[in-house]
Structure formats: C-alpha cells, structure tokens
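Worked example 2:
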Amino acid sequence: MDIKDRIKKVFVELLRVKPEELKEEARLYDSIGVDSTEMVEAVIALEKEFGVKLSQKEITKFSTLEEIEKVVSSRSA
C-alpha cells in the first residue's frame, strides 16, 4: 500500500466516507466537510500511521489529500 492509499485509509476510517468520495485535489474543508476537530484527529492518526511529527501550523495549511501526501512524504524520507 503506497502513501496515498494509506492517507486515504486514515480519512475513510475517520470520516466514515467511501474511498471514491476522497479525490486528491478536493478541498477537505469545503468538498468533504471536514471540520477542525476532525482535522486534528486526522493529523494524530497520520502521525501514528507514518511515525512523523506534524506541527500546528501544518495542520491548518492542509486543504487537500495531495498537500498532505507531500508533507508526509517529505517527513518519511
């Protein structure tokens, strides 16, 4: 399972949505309706999944799965 799939899995489980509802370029806050609490929970889950540390500043910047993948990939390398 690659990084994209693992990130999607975190959001599918957290938000209880179908994988096809999560488009890489979709804005999480607007298109999917993620709220700030869910995003914090997602970040915690991503930190556990990938063994990376993400800052508060980064949490508020995430708006697409694509952006999350870039940050997680850079930290995992």
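The chain is about 65% helix and 0% strand. The first helix runs from residue 3 to 15.
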